[in-house]
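Final report, results section. Input specification for complex C-07:
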Amino acid sequence: MTDRDIELEATAARLRTTFDASFAAPQLAGAGGDVDVLAIRIAGHGYALRLSEVQAVHAERKLTPVPSPLPALLGLVGVRGLVVPVYDLRLMLGYAAGPPPRWLALARAASPIGFAFEAFEAHWRLPVAAVVTEMTSTGDGQRFARGGVQTDAGPRSLLHLPSLIESVTKHARPNSERAREERR
Amino acid sequence: MNWTFGRKLALGFAIAILTLLVVGISGHRATSELIDNDRWVTHSEEVKRTLAQLLSSLKDAETGQRGFLLSGDQRFLDLYQAGLSDIAKGQSRARELTSDNDLQQRRLAALAPIVASRLAHLGEVIEARRQHGLEGVVKSDLLLDGKRQMDDIRALVAELDEAESRLLAKRRQQSEQSAGAAQSTILWGSALGTLLVLLAGTVISRSLSSQVGVAVRHIQASSAELQAAANQQATGAKEQATAMNEVTTTISELLATSRQIAESARRVADIAGQTSTQARTGDATVARGTEAIGAIKRQVDAIVSHMLELGKKSQQIGAVLEIVSELAEQTNILAINATIEAAGAGDSGRRFGVVADEIRKLADRVGGSTKEIRTLIDDVRAAVNTTVMTTETGSKAVEAGSDQFAVVASSFGQISRQVITATEAAKEIELSTKQQATAVEQVNVAITSVAQASKESEVSTGQTLRTASELASLSRELLKLVQAQQANGGARRVAS
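Structure output:
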């Protein structure tokens, strides 16, 4: 039996123990509460989404393209009887166009809006202390970032979905209404 | 005339024999004629005796008849009867002896009836005497007739005797002539033969003396040359004997060398035979090695096949793992959405949120494990690919090794065959060398014999030299004799 076999057996035993322990241990909450975030990847960069701002997560939904002056609007998808417009976070964050994104996050809003991204990495339950309000990093995507989260793998920008919704909504209104607002 | 001794001697003897033959034949013919004439003389005398006997027998018969006539005595008749018998015999003998003379035969034929008449007359007188007695006979005329018949008989017998006497005289004369001719022939033939033999002997003697003298001079010259040649031959024979001794020594050394070569060839043949046996054993080992390499090649092919199968199985595992990964991902999505829903449900959804969170964790772990398994499978596939490539390389190496081994086996087989050929060649060399050694031994024996013959030749050459010297001496003596004979002959001729 090789070292690799021993390692595999140890991993299996650890998984089994952890799985059993998760059901045996009492439910504990953090002192200041926890924050659920979704770790995603856009144009090779890591980002995070607050789970509280997300209504649902889907993968490989059938997308129906529609003509639009907005390059970020990929098309429409049907989710539980609703027609949801889907925007490409890559383009919205200012990155160059890439392959069609696979993942879709529905943002909580009056009318659901979907944001597509390349990859879903993980669901993290982080302590509140891990959430920071200011991030030193800059980039194209920082326009919609509201702070960040500190993880073992390093800091990660926390995208603010309401800002994205507002941006999309602002560009989606008709030109006349938009001019009126601008005159006001 | 250049005749040989034989021809000259044959000629001389032929002349002598011819002379003797002529003299002999002439003498024989003369003697035969003499004997024949003498036989005829005897014959004539016998005829004359027979005629006289016939006449005497007639007289006896007449005497017996007269005696009986006078005395009447019967005993005179016996004389008469004997005379009758002698008369018949005499007539018969006379006819027989004169059978070659017709004239005498006619005379005898004329005499026969007269004699018969006379005898008949004698018988009539005797019968008359018996019947009439002496007086009766005297009174008759019977006695007168008897005298006339007797006179005729005497006349005819005298005529016969006379004729025979003439033949006798003639034959005696011929016999004397034949005897003289025989004497002359023998005498003169002998003289002539002697003269011819003397002449031939003289001629042959002179000729032979001349030729023998020349031949003797030639013999003398030849004997001198033979002597010189014998001297040279004696010297050459000594040198030849010395050379033959050296050749014998060399052949002996060659024989020893041939035996050493034969022994070496035998050892080479033995070693070659052992090498051939080892080569055959090595050939079997190479065959087993070829079979083992074939088995290895088959095993390597089986390993490659199994490895490819293992690669396919790992691909299938990867596909299944893909499904598991997708399921984990879907479970994760469901757990996240369940968490979101539980958070939206307030306190009542908190416990559900806990479960959803655990499910999400589980899905995360499954996803992590799936990634690890994928890594492991990728490692396995990489290892399988590496193993397949390595095994294929090994298979190619085994195949190349098998081909190389086949070449090696072929080369080994060729080496084995060549070793066998070399073994056979070594055996042939051994056999040839033995035959050569045997031939050298035979040559040695022959050379030894030749050396012995050379020594004997040397001895015989000395003998030849001595014989040549003796021959030269004899030829000188013979020449002296011939020259002396010629000198005597010449002196006689001068004296004559």
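Chain B touches chain A at residues 329-330, 332-333, 335-337, 339-340, 343, 354, 357-358, 360-362, 364-365, 369, 372, 376 (CB under 8 Å). The longest helix of chain B spans residues 142-344. This concludes the modelling results for the funded period.
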